[in-house]
Amino acid sequence: MFKTTPFWKGVIHTFSKVNYSHSVLLKLLSAEGIYLKRPAISKIIKRNKDLPNNLKGTRGEQRKTRIRPSRTSDAIRKLSVLTKKENPTTQKIMANICRTSQSTVNRMIKDELNLVTKRKAKGHALTNRHIYERFTHCRKLYENYLAKDRWKSIVSIDEAWIYLDDTNKPRTIYYHKKGINERLEFVLHCKEKFSKGFMVVAGYSYRGKLTIRKIPKNVKINAHYFQCNVMDAIYHNEIPQFFGNDAPKVLVHMDKASSHTARSSRQYYDIKKQETGIDVVPFSSIPVKSPDCSPMDFCGFGLLKKRLAKRRPTTTAGLWKTCVEEWNAIPDETLRKSLLQWKLRCRAIVRNRGYHIEQNRWWERGFT
Fold first, then answer.
1. Could you tell me the CA-to-CA distances from 54 to 15, 44, 140, 344 in Å, in that order?
2. pTM of this prediction?
3. Do 105 and 209 fall into the same domain?
4. Do 134 and 38 share a structural domain?
5. Cα 367 from Cα 86, distance rounded (Å)
6. 64 falls within a domain
7. Per-residue pLDDT reduced to its tens digit, 291-304
8. Same domain, 287 and 360
9. Tens digit of each residue's pLDDT (9 = 90 or more) over 250-274
10. 145 and 222 co-located in one domain
11. Which of 27, 54, 147, 327 could form a disulfide with 13 if both were Cys (CB 3.0 to 4.6 A apart)?
C-alpha cells in the first residue's frame, strides 16, 4: 500500500485549489506511479485545508493519539459477573458497562479472567423428573447390563429419519481477499419446500452391523409392523448369524418409543424369549431423554448422516441406495469403540447426577 509523502499531499492540495477534479488527480498520480483511491484524496484535501503552506510538508499537523483505558480492578470485577451469566451479552455492551473499549474487554476476558469462548452443546430440555430418571436408570443400565464384558452381548437398534437435505451440504465459510469491496458472491441458500425422505431402522452389536431397513412410504411404524417386519428377522436370522450358540445370552436394547413399549410388544418379547432365549433390556433401565446415552443416536446415525453430507443423490431412490452403501462402509471397529464409550457415558451421567454431559468431555479421559 502506497504511503503518501508530505510533498504529494501538498501537490494534491495545490491542484485541488485550481478546481482539479478527483478523477483528474487520480490520472495524474497514477502516471507518476502513485495509486490512491477517491476517499484517500478527499481525506488529504480535508486535513490540509487549513495549513498555510502545504508544499513544505505537514510538520505543524499534530497526530491525535487515543488514550487507552487501563484494566482497572473495578472493570475486571464487573466483567467477571457479566461473563458468568448463562446468556452473556455482547462484548460491545460489556465495554459500555465497564466504561472501556471493546478491544480492552476482549483482552481482559483472555488475560485477566483466563476465559475462552465455547459453543453450547445441544440437548433435550430436562425436568427434575427427567434428571432423576437419567441418574437412576443409567446406573441400572451400567451395573446390570454393561459392566465387565456384558456389553458384548447387547444389540442396540433404533429408528431415524433420513432426508435429501442431509446430503450434499454446502460449507458455511468462504475466503475473501483483503482490500477489495465485498459483494454477495457466496450465499447459503435456503430451500423453500420440505425435504423428501424416509424412515430407516438399523442397529449394531460387538459382532457387527444389522441390515438397515427402509420403512415404506405412508406406512405407520406401529407395534404390529415393528414386530412383523423388523423384529422377526432380527430374532430368527441376524442374531443367530452373528452369535451362533451364544444367541440365548443376547439382550436387545431399544428406546422408549410407543411401538417398542406397547402391551402387544411386551407380550411379543416374552414369546420370543421362550422360543429363542433372546431377551430385551427392561425399559425400567432405559434412561429417558437420553440420546447422549444411546449408541445409535450418538454414533450410528451420527456417522451415517456425516457420511451422507458428502454424497449427492437427487431422488429418494438414490438416497436409499447411498444410505445402504454408507451404512455398510462404516468400520465395525469404530462401532465397537462406541459401545465402550457407552459405558463411559452411563457412568458420566451418574457422576453428573443426571444432568447433561455433552458440554464437558472430561469423562473421555477416564475415571479416577
1. 11, 11, 86, 75
2. 0.69
3. no
4. no
5. 28
6. no
7. 999 999 999 999 99
8. yes
9. 999 999 988 899 999 999 999 999 9
10. yes
11. 54
